[in-house]
Structures are given as C-alpha cells and as structure tokens.
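check this one:
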Amino acid sequence: MHEMTKGANIGLGSLSEDATTVRVGLSWSSETGDGDADVSVLLLGDQGKVRSEADFFFYNNPVAEDGSVQLLGKAPTDSGSEDRISVDLSVVPADVARIVVAASRDEGERFGDLNGLRLTVADRGGEGLLGFSIDDAGAEGAFVFGEFYRRGGEWKFRAIGQGYETGLAGLATDFGIDVDDEAEAVAEVATESPEDLKSRQNAGSPETPEEAVAAPAVVLPAQASPPVEQAVPATRRPRTVRKKVTLPKVAKKTLAENDAWRSARLFPVPTLKSDRERETRATSVLLSVMAQVPEFGRRLTAGFGAPAGRMETFTEVSLPYGDARTGESRKRPDGVIRVERAGKLWTALVETKTNGNPLKAQQVQDYLDIAARRGYEAVITLGNDVALEGSPLVDVKIDGRRKHKVVLWHLSWAEVTHQAQLLIRHEGVGNAAHAWLLQELLHYLQHENSGCHGFQNMGPAWVPVRKAIDDETLCQGDARAVDVVESWERLVRQVCLRLGGELGQKVLPVQRVRRPADPAARRAALADLLCREGQLHAELRIEGIQGILALTADLRTGKLRTSVDIPAPDQGYPLAWAKRLIRQLAEAPADLHVQTLLAENGDGPRGTLERLRPEPADLLPKGGGEITGFRLSLFKSMGATRGSAESGFIRSVDDAVDRFWGSVVTPLERRLAPARPATRPSPSPSPSQSVSSGVPG
C-alpha cells in the first residue's frame, strides 16, 4: 500500500490496473470507546462548488442515482470501526471535476479527541492501494480527508487533511451548500399537541420539514413511536435533498377469526426438511428478491465491488471444471449474480450454507478456480457465521500468478436480515410491492425452519473451556481459549447487527485502543484474560447514546451482566439526583442493580431498585465523596449449552440484551434527554433521546 503525506497526490492508474471502482475507508479509534463521526462525500464542478444540493451525500442521502457514490455504512474492525464508501469513477458525470471525502462530528465534539484518523483506498477486489494518516487534528469539528480529481484524462487522489473549526456547516458552506436554521422549524413541529399533529397529517401535509423536500418512500407498518414532547435546539445544518424516512404506522387489524389462521406466505418454510433443500430454497429466495428490489440488491453487492446497474440472478448453474487432459467435469454453484453496466458485466458465484453447516474449503477453492478461468470477478460465500479480520472462515489459496484476480467475500445471514430490516422498517423503499417483497423475505429468514438464523454455535471448545474454568485447570496459552474468544467476538458482532436492524441505528462493538493491533495478538491477550478471570467482556456503542452498553459473561458464576453508566448532572444536589433517578426508573424491573460511581475509588453504595425505591438516600456514600455517575445493571443466568436453543448460551445473550434495552434503556431515554438533531432519521421502536445526558438535578 502506498503511504501518502499531506498535500501529496498520485494517479490511481499507477497503483492498479483496475481502479475504476474504489472503496474508500475512513477510520478512527477512541480510548473512551464512544468517539464517532459521520462521513460525507461532495461532487464538485469546475468552480469548486456542488452542482446542486443533491451532490452532497451523507447519512440521509447515501446513494447517487447513477451509482457513482454509495455510503456503505460502518463496519467493525479490530481497532474500532471503519466507514466505507463505494465510488465508481467510470460513471461519474463529465461535469464533475472533484470528489471530496470528508467527515464531521456532532456540535461541541472535536477530531482532536479521536485517535488513529486514517483514510484508505482499495480497488474493486479489496486490495489496498493507498493510505493517509492524520496526526495533527485539534479543535476541528469537520475534516476533509482527501479528494479524487481528474487530470489529463485520468483520476488522481490528493491527500488533504484540512479541518474546519466551524464544523459541518462551515465545510458545507465552503462548497456551495445552503445552510439554514432548519432545526427551528422542526422544534415547532415537536411542540405541537398530538391533536394538532394528527389533524395536519390527515390533511395530507408533510410530517416533518425533511419530508417536505424528500422523494416518496414506502415502509411497512410497525409499532408507532411516542410523540416527541421536547423542542429540538436550533442548530445550523446543511439543507440538502435527502431520502424520505417515513415514520412507521400501527399495524392494521387482522381479518382472521382467530390466532389459528395463518397468513399465506410468498415463501413458505414449514415444508423444508433437509439441509440441501434449505440451501436451495434460501439461495433462490434471496437472489430473486435482490434482483427485484434494486435498493436491496445494490446494498448487498456494493461492498463487493459490484457496479450499480441492471442485476440478474440465477440458481443451480452448471459450469465446466477441469481440462481435457484430466477429464472435464461439471460444478454447480448455488447461485450466480450478474450485473451489467454500460455494456460491462460483473459476475459472482454464490456458495450457500444454512443451519450452521460449515463451508467446505475444497468446494470454495473449485469455485475460485472456475471464476478465474471464466473471467468472473468474485465468489461470495453465504452462511451463518460472521467473518472476522485475521480469522478466515475457510482456508483457500488464490493463485497470484493469474492475471485475472478473483476476490473471495463472505456474507452472513445476520447481515442480510440487518439490511432488510433497515430498508423496510426505517429507511423506506421505492414502492409498496418492493416493501412487501422485503417483508416476506424477512419473515422467511426469521422462521425457525429456514436455517438462516446467523451465528448459532459457540464451537467445540466452548464446553471444555467452561469445564476447565470450573475446575480451575485452564492455563494461559491454551488454544481452546482463543477459539472461545473468536466465537464470542462473532456473537457480539451479530448482536450488533440484530439490534441495529431493529432500532434503525448504527450499533458497533467498541475497541478501546489507541493504535491498531494485530488481530491474532489481541485475541491471544483476551484469551489469557479469560483464563485468569473466567470472564468474557464486550461493549456496544449505539448511535444517539454517548454512553456504552456493557456486556459481561462470567463463566465462573454462570451469570450475564448488562449495564450502562449514567453521568452525574452538572448542577443540583446528590440527594436530588438519587431521588430523580429512582423516579425515572419507575418502569424498570425491581431486580435492577443501581450503583453509585465515585471519583476516588470508583465503587460506591449499591442496591436493587426494589430496596432503593423507598430509600433513595442509600445511594449516597456514607463518608462523603464526589459522585461522578450511576451504573445500572441487570443480571441473568446464562445458558448451559453452546448453541442457540432455548437453553443455549447464544439465546441467553440475546435475551439479556433485549431485556436490558427494552426495560431499562428505552424507558429511561424517554424521561431523560432532549430529542436528537432533526437531520438524523428517527428510529423505531426506540425513542429518539439519549441516556448520556445525565440525571437532571
């Protein structure tokens, strides 16, 4: 990879023969675990300004109509997370001279508080072309990392590293985006009475200022969110054309006479009996919906380097394998995806596994060889496991001597479900038929007989490691402990996908690191920690909540702990804080543990909510001490088996996270915090407030 310095430039053609489609990655890390930023891309004309506001791509306007730019969202990495952007330089309009890649933080936050600011550019196959690290960030609230620009008929890249202390508004204004006090108008909407809001909606007027400028979209019925009761503080944000996010509506009353009546499904599942039948049906169902719902198909394939174009999908295609000397045979991949753009074809072979069945290395190797000989671009494996950096799901060899490069990608069923949920429940799609197709796909994927339930087995090392911890015979350096750590990491990433799809929020595992670490060394260190303490730890960062949701599995006690820390307010008295907190937890379970956090030794008084409700003063330290916040925790027995059955560990982790989020975090959000900035889509069923604002005094 070519490392660049600030101000340097280089032609992409000198780095790769196939740099027409590139993937840009922006990454950073935080020792506190809660640092984040939002990426944006601007298309500029010869005058250095956007041609229109539609040339500004960010979280509410993530895809260009011509497919030249697509924000792929955040992906977890071993050192934090990476925001990924697909740029198809071959279809960028001729009157676009520059493509600026930038990022911004929320008001009051600085890039100087983040570590490891870095931009990377990879080719269509994922091979790194260039990297640019920024180590001089300070008070800036927005940053231009770099830009692609035309010169002499070719595309080049320039490393910029320029910051704006005025934040996103300053950056947007510089490039010709109008900025107004849009949030003031939203504040007026937020303070309307429910009766006035209902009357205005029935009259056919838009629900929010965003909807007044957005293109129509369709989402499926779901539970409606409660009305926002607090006004949004006015903030200056760029006014842009964006995709409409329609609030979900209450589901229609069923016409069935009783619960025994079952709706007719487009993709029936109960008849599936064998693993082969599950794989065949699942492949056909998924690929057909990808071809018929462009937003969905493009979202799944863009990260694999596929262009934005007309997509067709096929199943059970017979392809020749071998040669005349050794005897030619036929191979049948489970599926084929083919995309056509401007007369050029992009082709990927698909190998599917369901019901927890592992990929077969030789089978995947054969498909890679076939793809290379036929000039195809990729092989996609689709299964229950979640891929990790530095720990491949299948061991194959790619012949580097071949001129044509084939890339091996992996897609988990959890990721497929996540993307379907985001589209139909939160972001919307083009028409009602597409929404219905996605709903049927989602029902199929979540059915117990489909075999598409994501990661569902902690592996063969799980039971021996738990027994060795009980017997106190597990020693540091035991390879089985590393296997358990990897399985735990896969499970945590799947929890993030599931929770993020349900909430319509970005949910990512937290890595508290200052510098990127080698994946193998990091997992070995975590395995040694497991041997010493008998615990597995994870932290989840959820968009809109600055606090971190912590999850601990104690293999010695057989308990799962979910917790979140709430900072103390800046004003008021400790007794008032304690009383207010207990009142705000009126809907929380009686067995919720509340602990006071102190500045000196950290741990203060604690007790269950049932005991503290009549005596909130018990949360105050007897000998005095500065209170920095409160920790809320729920405990649950964890499953004994390694799988996802009712008695399994994976199911118990899902249940623990769901219970804590639904019974503690969600009710507390409604009572604590002001509404989020108006430029971010409102999630459902999660409220749009933040736990992180503390306990009002």
